[in-house]
């Protein structure tokens, strides 16, 4: 989800809720402790120089049970960050701590913001020796092809 998308969703909400993919919720007394833009300059394993730019939200589970972040307040934090830091309309990455700090993509299911698990990937598979994925063959098709019969030498 891009920053412009969350900004268009927030005015229609009564409450801001974040849910993990496993269905558990970030406690409702969370705080957004940071909104910023993170730029990552790196070289992939194939030697290609790359840049990644994301808008970063950091959620913190505070022991502050008296306050709840309302949509208007989050929108004002975002707008202040845009004005003061020059944040661009980029994909949002959310940092949230469970057993360690996790980084999540952000989605919206119509009611809740969903923290989507991120996966690592090789960006230069063709350059670093990772073999192409083997085609999947269904055993039923192999058995029906007649190519593997007793005495045919295929086994």
In short:
The chain has 155 residues and is of the alpha/beta class. It has three helices and six strands.
Task: Explain how this protein is built.
- The model has no long low-confidence stretch (mean pLDDT 88).
- A hairpin with a 5-residue loop joins β2 and β3 (49-61).
- The protein has one domain (3-128).
- The chain has helices spanning 3-9, 71-85, 139-144; strands spanning 18-20, 30-43, 49-61, 92-97, 101-108, 113-117.
- The chain has three helices and six strands; from the N terminus they run αβββαβββα.
Write the layout of secondary structure elements.
Layout: H1 3-9, E1 18-20, E2 30-43, E3 49-61, H2 71-85, E4 92-97, E5 101-108, E6 113-117, H3 139-144
Parallel strand pairs: 1-6, 3-4
Antiparallel strand pairs: 2-3, 4-5, 5-6
| Global shape | elongated
Oligomer: single chain
Structural class: alpha/beta
Mean pLDDT: 88
Task: Please estimate the helix content.
Answer: 10-25%
- Enumerate how many helices there are, as a single number: 3
- What number of domains? 1
Distance between the termini: 50 Å
Low-pLDDT runs: none
Order of helices and strands: HEEEHEEEH
The description of the largest β-sheet is:
6 strands, mixed
What is the topology, as strand order, of the major beta sheet?
1-6-5-4-3-2
Question: Beta-sheet strand percentage?
Answer: 25-35%
Number of strands: 6
Radius of gyration: 23 Å
């Amino acid at each position: 989800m891009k920053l412009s998308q969350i900004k268009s969703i927030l005015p229609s909400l009564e409450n801001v809720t974040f849910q993990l993919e496993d269905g558990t919720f970030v406690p409702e007394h969370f705080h957004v402790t940071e909104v910023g833009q993170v730029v990552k300059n790196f070289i992939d394993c194939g030697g290609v120089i790359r840049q990644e730019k994301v808008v970063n939200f950091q959620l913190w589970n505070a022991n502050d049970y008296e306050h709840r972040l309302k949509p208007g307040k989050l929108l004002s934090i975002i707008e202040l960050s845009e004005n003061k830091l020059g944040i661009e309309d980029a994909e949002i990455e959310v940092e949230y701590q469970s057993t360690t700090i996790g980084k999540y993509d952000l989605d919206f299911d119509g009611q809740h913001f969903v923290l989507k698990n991120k996966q690592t990937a090789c960006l230069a598979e063709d350059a670093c020796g990772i073999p192409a994925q083997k085609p999947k063959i269904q055993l039923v098709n192999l058995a029906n092809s007649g190519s593997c019969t007793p005495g045919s030498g295929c086994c």
